[in-house]
Amino acid sequence: MADATLIPLEVLFGNPERVGAQISPDGTRLSYLAPLDGVLNVFVGDIGAGTAQPVTHDTDRGIQNYFWTWDNRHLMYVMDKDGSENFRLYDVDPSTGVERDLTPLDDVQCRIIAHRKRFPNEVLLGINKSNPQLHDVYHLDLTTGELRKILENPGYLGWVVDTDLRVRGALAPTPQGGMTILVRDDEDGDWRVLLDVGPEDAETTGPVSFSLDGTAMYLLSSVDSNTTRLVKMDIASGAVEVIAEDPVYDVSGTIIDQDTREIQGVTVYADRVQYRIFDDRIRGDIDALEQLSPGELMITDRSADDGTWLVAFDNDAGPVKYYLWDRASQTPTFLFDHRPELNDYPLVPMEPFSFTSRDGLTVHGYLSFPPGVERSGLPAVLNVHGGPWARVGWGFDPEAQWLANRGYVAVSVNFRGSSGYGKEFLNAGNREWAAKMHDDLLDAVDNLVGKGYIDAKRVGIYGGSYGGYAALVGATFTPDVFACAVSAVGPSNLNTLIASFPEYWKPMIQLWHKRVGDDPDFLWSRSPLSRVDAITIPILIGQGENDPRVKRAESEQIVAAMTERGIEHEYVMYENEGHGFVKPENRLDFYHHVDRFLAKHLGGRAE
């Protein structure tokens, strides 16, 4: 390991050279995100020209996501200020350079609901101006910029729009923590129940889209099944047709024809993504593309005539590679690597593993080992994912590469409560924060110690959001297992966490109570702050000042308690950040802190 090149943090966590490639609907222009004076902006150029020019000029947090509108004239993106998550919608005309703030509203959140190929100059938005808890539906005219409210929200969490751009579906929360899916026949019709979804299915069931004729709705649904299936539901009779399912894993995504609105295929996420294709018109494309690279295929964009695709391959041990795919000639054209410098460094594979928990569940995860060393008695970092109702997957993980490069085994675990493995596995995490969900992490450590891979005395725990909470739990509930802990934007007190949720989360509060708990004494018993006196290991905490999800107080109350008791800790707070560190200078500063902290307490290398 001593001879292995140290990968600079800038290469892993600084701005990518180019990322987020898309094509204009007419297939003539290529766009991507790239740094402009150190800030990510959108660049656009003619395909094949080899040059692109910036069309946005943000100087602050950078643009994270964007898309072409179907009018072939505009690029749209949402941005907030300093991580507040009060997103505004902006657009730019790449031909003229004219940029517009389309929702110039303070302390209001905008969400994009729908933009359809058949209505290239229109966008439907959700805006919580009238009631901060609820998003009303607004119609945006892209030509004039006119914004008008078309539907007052009576208490719904979300909306489903048909192919005629009419709001004909809605999601309503139930007092039990479940959800009701409602439909209506037209914009003036009465809402009626299509499907009652209990709390056990609420996280694993949801609408995908209406069929072209509007008589059916496609749903990803775990109702009457353990795993999430793709179903087609007749909205008049309620009859259900199962289109795709897997006995072990959830259906994770869909491929939709923009013209017919038919489902062309689905993805199922096992250890890696699997494509299940139903449409013979694209089957040959998928087969050919999967032969092009060992990475995970992602179809990131398709031209309006469907003749040109933009695809990316996510590799575990290399940069993300972008290609144009000409469907007529079945010809790929390589575009770029998202971080070409990675090709110069010794990256390691991401290896799936699984083990049996102490109560008999099969738990899956991924390991990344340091290169060129014997797999015996190594220090390790347990990297806990956020959510927690999410999962880690295979592919390029900059944190896994960083940890392995520094000499640690990087351990990622899809503990119970993670998504993707069926509702029984997800619901096994109900009311198990700091309990069985944490036991799964401990069992992963025991499994790897038992195999001789890792040194039980040199294991750190690290994570952000729920992962930050898990790191604090490791330090307070089981400090004898870990040598150190790093928490980024992690809750320390579940009572104050839930009490301080953003207003637009409050309609979902019953689901939180079902999943996490509702009794204040119970929530306190699962809060790291309640066990500060048990801390015997060093802790590093990072926080964004404007985080609307895990408020600044979550970090500061446990920091104050540790300070009062003289417990060793480091605390870094970033004034212009929210739930995570977006600005590259803040992100790099945080990773430098963690790099040195882990080296000091686990004995690995640091930059």
From TrEMBL:
GO molecular function: serine-type endopeptidase activity
Record SUPFAM superfamilies: alpha/beta-Hydrolases, DPP6 N-terminal domain-like
Coiled coil stretches, renumbered: none
Recorded superkingdom: Bacteria
Organism: Mycobacterium dioxanotrophicus
Keyword Hydrolase listed: yes
Lineage of producing organism: Bacteria, Bacillati, Actinomycetota, Actinomycetes, Mycobacteriales
Entry's Gene Ontology BP terms: proteolysis
Membrane-traversing stretches: none
Keyword Signal: no
Peptidase S9 prolyl oligopeptidase catalytic domain mapped to chain residues: 394-604
InterPro entries, sorted: 6-blade_b-propeller_TolB-like, AB_hydrolase_fold, Peptidase_S9_cat, Peptidase_S9A
Protein name per UniProt: S9 family peptidase
Protein keywords: Hydrolase
